[in-house]
Design brief:
The protein is an alpha/beta fold. The protein has a domain of 125 residues: P-loop containing nucleotide triphosphate hydrolases (Rossmann fold). 34% of the residues lie in helices and 25% in strands. It contains nine helices and nine strands. The protein has a six-stranded mixed sheet with strand order 5-6-7-3-8-9, sandwiched between helices. A three-stranded antiparallel sheet has the order 2-1-4, with helices on one face. The mean pLDDT is 92. Bound molecules: adenosine-5'-triphosphate and magnesium ion. Adenosine-5'-triphosphate binds next to β2 and α1.
Length: 244
């Protein structure tokens, strides 16, 4: 569905700055309707890769292309949700304004946008009473659901979730993952799920790529990668149990 070919991103390099190869020669294809986990420790280049994919940054070299682009595909084929919901939502807006923001920006009149707000919240299993709440009246997990609902308003083909569960406790993280699993089915979309916690993806992600220093170390279906890791790095991660 989305093909990355030899994608690299370097930072710095001017004057005495050192060059950082944040993403280094990455090639893979995201398939339709899969959950693809991108795993790596802090600084491995996960967020940079996510921003390249959604177009917030341009690669230094390589290409990112949609295959089989659907006719009349909506403008926003991809949406991104970040780790910290407080940085991506206006604290002075009620939830109904937050979830409908992309619809209103795309020109839908406010009244028609509001009419869709309740069903968007329904998709993320939040009751309609949340429409009138403000972000400070919601928990971290609820705010991430609201951020997901806002992304869903554009019917994305690809949802990029960059560490969206990393600040949550394990049971809230699990609930949000279950929600993403059911959304994969009901919305028929692809989810790029970024995390540094390898131990959370069994039974959740279809495929996984392990990244270190900007380079994909290995890639495969989740079960076989966890059962028979091919690289020493992945084996070390599994032995360690958790990332540092
Ligand atoms: N705008 C930038 N300018 C310069 N260097 C950057 C910039 N953004 C990221 N980097 C560097 O690129 C590398 C990869 O950073 P990135 O944020 O992609 O990692 P990450 O895997 O998302 O880490 P984390 O798990 O901490 O979020 C790091 O060495 C980082 O310092
Ligand atoms: Mg990051």
């Amino acid at each position: 569905m989305l093909h990355l070919e030899k994608v690299s991103k370097q930072y710095g390099g001017s004057r005495k700055e050192q060059v950082v190869k944040a993403v280094d020669d990455v090639t893979f294809t995201l398939q339709e309707n899969e959950i693809f986990a991108l795993i790596g420790e802090s600084g491995s280049g996960k967020s940079t890769l996510a921003e390249l994919i959604v177009g917030l940054q341009q690669p230094t070299s390589g290409s990112i292309k949609w295959a089989n682009v659907q006719k009349n595909a909506p403008v926003s084929r991809l949406q991104i949700v970040f780790q910290n919901p407080d940085r991506s939502m206006n604290p002075y807006w009620p939830v109904k304004d937050i979830v409908t923001e992309p619809l209103r920006l795309s020109g839908l009149p406010r009244k028609q946008a509001y009419a869709r707000a309740e069903s968007l919240l329904g998709k993320v299993k939040l009751p309609a009473e949340f429409l009138e709440r403000y972000p400070f009246e919601c928990s971290g997990g609820q705010k991430q659901r609201i951020a997901v609902a806002r992304a869903l308003s554009m019917s994305p083909q690809l949802l990029v979730a960059d560490e969206i569960t990393s600040a949550l406790d394990p049971s809230t993280e699990h609930e949000l993952q279950q929600l993403l699993l059911s959304l994969k089915q009901s919305e028929g979309m692809t989810i790029l799920y970024i995390t540094h916690r390898l131990e959370t993806i069994a039974g959740f992600a279809d495929r996984v790529a392990v990244m270190k220093d900007g380079v994909i170390q290995e890639i495969g279906d989740t079960r076989s990668l966890l059962d028979e890791p091919k690289t020493a790095y992945t084996r070390a991660l599994l032995r360690a149990g958790v990332f540092g």
